[in-house]
From TrEMBL:
<dbReference type="GO" id="GO:0005739">
    <property type="term" value="C:mitochondrion"/>
</dbReference>
<comment type="similarity">
    <text>Belongs to the peptidase M16 family.</text>
</comment>
<dbReference type="GO" id="GO:0051603">
    <property type="term" value="P:proteolysis involved in protein catabolic process"/>
</dbReference>
<keyword id="KW-0482">Metalloprotease</keyword>
<feature type="domain" description="Peptidase M16 N-terminal">
    <location>
        <begin position="47"/>
        <end position="194"/>
    </location>
</feature>
<dbReference type="GO" id="GO:0004222">
    <property type="term" value="F:metalloendopeptidase activity"/>
</dbReference>
<feature type="domain" description="Peptidase M16 middle/third">
    <location>
        <begin position="408"/>
        <end position="695"/>
    </location>
</feature>
<feature type="domain" description="Coenzyme PQQ synthesis protein F-like C-terminal lobe">
    <location>
        <begin position="801"/>
        <end position="900"/>
    </location>
</feature>
<dbReference type="Pfam" id="PF22456">
    <property type="entry name" value="PqqF-like_C_4"/>
</dbReference>
<dbReference type="InterPro" id="IPR011249">
    <property type="entry name" value="Metalloenz_LuxS/M16"/>
</dbReference>
<dbReference type="Pfam" id="PF16187">
    <property type="entry name" value="Peptidase_M16_M"/>
</dbReference>
<keyword id="KW-0378">Hydrolase</keyword>
<keyword id="KW-0862">Zinc</keyword>
<dbReference type="InterPro" id="IPR007863">
    <property type="entry name" value="Peptidase_M16_C"/>
</dbReference>
<keyword id="KW-0645">Protease</keyword>
<protein>
    <submittedName>
        <fullName>Insulinase (Peptidase M16)</fullName>
    </submittedName>
</protein>
<dbReference type="InterPro" id="IPR050626">
    <property type="entry name" value="Peptidase_M16"/>
</dbReference>
Length: 1004
């Protein structure tokens, strides 16, 4: 329906009558310098325009309030909404060339994407800030239009080209097969499959070849025609929300919105509604046993509750999930850990379609916990009973409201596309117009009766259990009796036993369960000392330098938030000396985290967290969040690291978890495995998961206890303190680590960084392995061309520009045109001191065939593209890359990450971006052609290529495959049979040398 008079909610008709403007002030974070205007067009399309004068990227997102729950109810045409999402971006009646949109974005530092959810479908793009609307005359002459204009046409006159139909159905099918062995997808689909047929939650949202082509064809249905019907039924302006962000003034952005989107049709449709619940008494009070692909064990207790969106000002389930998911003293998890039954627990809500939600409690079980999953269910219900008995506590509500307010007050910026997508999604939630930016974050009202009402919904007759395990002996009857249709997941459904039901109905209090104490980590000091800084400091400075410790510091002078990032690397010559040493280091870190968990969880709730991870040089310790209590948390972590006593029960619980993680590594998707082994082959020293697993099995608590003092005895400490802390506080942070661990300094010779393999000229090596999961249809290939050294700014510039030129045509050729697979990635890879161009593909086709197609793509499409490229087109590529490199950091963490990457790389080149830009401006079209012909082309003698193939066991034997497949590798290809011999016969890159002169012996 069109607007005829100003809306009573505060909209006022514009003088020209083309739209209405919301006249109330939109609530924004005090930390947000952007300006906003909310419009409603005459077709009822609601639009938020955002003026960001500092934006590097402009972006837009359109959210349609319809998703896969609105797919037709028959088994055929499942995934129709998702298929529409795919086909929509491939040309319009006004701009029919299907790749025109993505070409333009690629040439102007942009990208696009889309996603389909239960009740929403989102489409978004981002592009260099100067090209949101664009110089239309120039673009018309170049037959490339503005992205914002073409974006609008997708929702006005999409072409839905017949020529794209079959190809995009195969793209949907490839996406489905990419996820076929992912337990998260398999388990989710069983939950949907076992829901009520009176509610569309059961739908298969992804779709595949059977539902979108083969099944409909058998019934005489044209899925493209059905897609067009779906589009004309649901894609209506009145259930769309649009967000546009750019540097342009609000008047200009609003004008573009009116000009470009007023033609979107308004059908006056209503958002979906589902009067029946997704679970009924038939589906509740059951336990579903599911066999996973990976070795995982979990229990999920799911309650059906009414939707909470109408009560967003109270957020009633936030109180409940906060307490059930708590990990401190008196919590469910604390008790389960003491019993040796669980390693982790999470609680949260998810959508069951508009008007319905699920409150889910998921527990990561130990082997002993699996035996006691019914006892764990009793403990969960005992905790819920405790919540009823205790009533809603004001001090907990105070903490929740305070933390929400602090988070909103100091909300940091996100990348443009991410931000507009989030807002467009939240505009569909029914928040008051003035609260569309704050509605999901702030708790505005206190209603203890409403909170208690939701606690009282968590009853014995409203839950369903789910047990995930591979051990069939733990399944009633000793068998997974059913198989889910789409993913082939084995499962079994059992009614809740009368014994368990009786125990639940007679539930009482458990004295070991109680509410958490007040949170001591809630920050109170938010002073940043903000001053005007027209020229912010460009890099951190060295404020402490001794043989034992180096501390870098930069006071935040860009974002002015009361936050800090304390990053430390603890270099140890024995942490990764052997697979045995490495897994003991991992176990040590896991035990420290487990010991600290009850205390550190409160810190994490208050926006202050820490992590302990490992790399091949030692241990990485990070503390990040609000600076007020950061040194306190750092001190507690370091003290625990130094004084850890290995408890037997804790050790074996953690060890079992680490062993399962190592076993599961081989079940990753083939593209991930190919990437991992490519890096392994190119690294001087790295231990495979298989080598580590072998060592893990024999380690005892006594072994680990003896190892800890050896690990901490000799270290080199290097830290970065970036954020709202002074130099003296940075030095204090370094002293906390140095004095707390009290190690001796390493000698300079023990600080030599990891090196990488230098491939010989003419190298054409292939490393081949089988995918061990016999059910996985997919194979993976990582195709790497080594071109130079990371320390050389000219090498860096050439390879980055080559990757920029390759990226869009690579995706278009290998995924869109040749349909090799859903996952097609390309870019720059740096391993130690060396770097190169990489192309990764996951495909159902044989990796040998895919390698040949990659080489044909380079040999034909890229070679021809470079040969015919005009100077104007070349400069667009250069400027697109420069614009990406000069993009400003959006938040403190992004800036910290750039500094830390330079420190851990060993280069310490904090001016690398500026150097790269200067080098890029020197490269000519002629020299990039030479670079390609000498180092990238698969036909040149001196190129250096190493590829990793992971081959599905479902493929026919080598030498046979699909008709037309090229299954013979190029002449001269060497198959790597012995990895150790390959590495031993390879040259190594030089040890990484800092670009800054600070390694001379300091004066003491």
């Amino acid at each position: 329906m069109a607007i005829e008079t100003p809306s009573p909610e505060g909209f006022e008709l514009s003088p020209d009558g083309t739209h209405a403007v919301f006249r109330k002030a939109i609530e924004i974070s005090p930390n947000d310098e952007r300006s906003y205007r909310l419009l409603r067009l005459m077709n009822d399309l609601e639009v938020l325009v955002i003026h960001d004068p500092k934006a590097d990227k402009s972006a837009a997102c359109l959210d349609v309030h319809v998703g896969h729950l609105s797919d037709p109810a028959s088994d055929n045409l499942q995934g129709l909404a998702h298929f529409l999402e795919h086909l929509l971006f491939l040309g319009t009646e006004k701009y029919p060339r299907e790749n025109e949109y993505k070409e333009f974005l690629s040439l102007h530092a942009g990208k696009s994407n889309a996603s389909t959810w239960l009740d929403n479908t989102e489409f978004h793009f981002e592009v260099g800030h100067a090209h949101l609307e664009g110089a239309l005359d120039r673009q018309v002459r170049a037959s490339i239009t503005s992205p914002s204009l073409q974006f609008a046409q997708f929702f006005i006159s999409p072409a839905f080209n017949v020529s794209c139909k079959e190809r995009e159905i195969h793209a949907v099918d490839s996406e489905f097969k990419r996820n076929l062995q992912l337990d998260s997808r398999r388990i989710y689909q069983i939950a949907k499959h076992l829901s009520s047929r009176d509610h569309p939650y059961w739908h298969f949202g992804t779709g595949n070849l059977l539902t979108l082509q083969e099944g409909p064809k058998e019934e005489g249905i044209d899925s493209r025609n059905e897609l067009i019907k779906f589009y004309h039924k649901y894609y209506s302006a009145n259930i769309m929300k649009l967000v546009i962000l750019g540097r342009e003034p609000l008047d200009v952005l609003a004008g573009w919105a009116v000009q470009k989107f007023s033609e979107v049709r308004n059908l006056g449709v209503a958002p979906p509604a589902y009067p029946s619940p997704p679970l009924t008494s038939k589906e509740l009070l059951t336990t579903v046993y599911i066999k996973p692909v990976r070795d995982t064990r979990s229990l999920e207790i799911k309650f059906l509750i009414p939707g909470t969106t109408p009560y967003y000002t109270v957020q009633p389930t936030s109180y409940i999930t906060h307490l059930i998911g708590h990990e401190g003293s008196g919590s469910i998890l604390s008790l389960l850990k003491r019993k040796g039954w669980a390693n982790g627990l999470s609680a949260g809500c998810s959508s069951g379609g508009i008007g319905h939600e699920f409150l889910k409690i998921t527990i990561d079980l130990t082997s002993e916990g699996l035996l006691h999953h019914e006892d764990i269910t009793i403990i969960v219900f005992q905790y819920i009973q405790m919540l009823r008995d205790e009533g809603v506590k004001d001090y907990i509500l105070d903490e929740e409201e305070s933390l929400a307010s602090i988070a909103f007050r100091f909300k940091e910026m996100q990348p443009a596309a991410e931000y507009v997508t989030k807002i467009a999604r939240e505009m569909q939630q029914g928040y008051a117009p003035e609260w569309i930016l704050s509605g999901s974050m702030l708790i505005r009202a206190r209603n203890t009766d409403l909170v208690m009402n939701y606690i009282n919904k968590l009853t014995v007759d409203r839950w369903r259990g789910q047990v995930v395990c591979q051990d069939v002996s733990k399944v009633p009857g000793g068998a997974f009796t059913e198989t889910e249709r789409w993913y082939g997941t084995p499962y079994h459904v059992d009614s809740v036993s009368p014994e368990l039901l009786k125990r639940l109905q007679q539930i009482g209090r458990n004295p070991e369960l109680h509410l958490p104490p007040p949170n001591e980590y809630i920050p109170k000091d938010f002073e940043t000392g903000k001053v005007d800084t027209p020229n912010p400091q460009m890099s951190p400075v060295l404020v402490q330098h001794t043989p034992l410790t180096r501390i870098w510091h930069k006071k935040d002078d860009v974002f002015w938030v009361p936050k800090v990032h304390l990053y430390f690397r603890l270099v140890s010559p024995i942490a990764t000396l052997s697979p045995n040493h490495l897994v003991k280091s991992i176990l040590y870190m896991k035990l420290v985290q487990d010991v600290l968990n009850e205390d550190s969880y409160s810190a994490a709730l208050a926006g202050l967290s820490y992590s302990l991870t490992s790399n091949m040089e030692g241990i990485i310790l990070k503390v990040e969040g609000y600076n007020d209590k950061a040194l306190l948390l750092l001190q507690k972590v370091v003290q625990t690291m130094k004084t850890l006593q290995v408890d037997n029960e804790r050790f074996y619980r953690i060890k079992d978890d680490v062993e399962r993680q190592h076993r599961n590594h081989s079940l990753n998707n083939p593209n991930i495995l190919a990437i991992y082994y490519e890096k392994y082959l190119n690294s001087e020293k790295q231990w495979t998961f298989a080598e580590r697993l072998e060592e893990l099995q024999g380690i005892t608590p006594e072994d680990l206890q003896r190892f800890i003092p050896q690990l901490l005895d000799h270290l080199h400490i290097e830290g970065l303190v970036h954020g709202n802390m002074s130099i003296s506080q940075a030095v204090e942070a370094g002293n906390i680590v140095e004095k707390g661990l009290a190690p001796r300094a390493l000698s300079p010779f023990e600080l030599i960084s990891m090196r990488s393999i230098i491939l010989p000229e003419g190298c054409r090596a292939v490393y081949q392995r089988d995918v061990i999961d016999p059910s996985n249809l997919n194979s993976g290939i990582d195709y790497y061309i080594q071109t130079g050294f990371g320390a050389d700014k000219t090498d860096r510039a050439f390879v980055q520009l080559m990757a920029q030129i390759i990226q869009e045509p690579c995706f278009n050729q290998l995924r869109t045109i040749e349909q090799l697979g859903y996952i097609v990635l390309s870019g720059v890879r740096q391993i130690g001191g060396t770097l190169g161009v990489v192309i990764v593909v996951q495909s159902e086709r044989d990796p040998i065939h895919v390698e040949n197609r990659i080489e044909n793509f380079l040999r034909v499409r890229i070679a021809n593209m470079l040969e015919s490229m005009t100077e104007e087109a070349y400069q667009k590529q250069v400027q697109s890359l420069i614009q990406k490199k000069l993009e400003k950091h959006k938040n403190l963490k992004q800036e910290t990450t750039r500094y830390w990457d330079q420190i851990t790389s060993g280069f310490y080149n904090f001016e690398e971006v500026q150097e790269d830009v200067q080098e890029l401006e020197k490269i000519t079209l002629g020299t990039i052609r030479i670079f390609f012909s000498k180092l990238i082309s698969p036909d040149v003698a001196q190129s250096k290529k190493l590829s990793v193939h992971f081959r599905s066991l479902r493929l026919p034997p080598n030498g046979s495959g699909k008709e037309g497949d090229e299954l013979v590798l190029k002449d001269g290809t060497v198959i790597i049979k012995d990895v150790d011999l390959f590495k031993a016969n390879s040259k190594l890159s030089a040890a990484l040398h800092p670009t800054l002169d600070f390694l001379r012996t300091p004066k003491l």
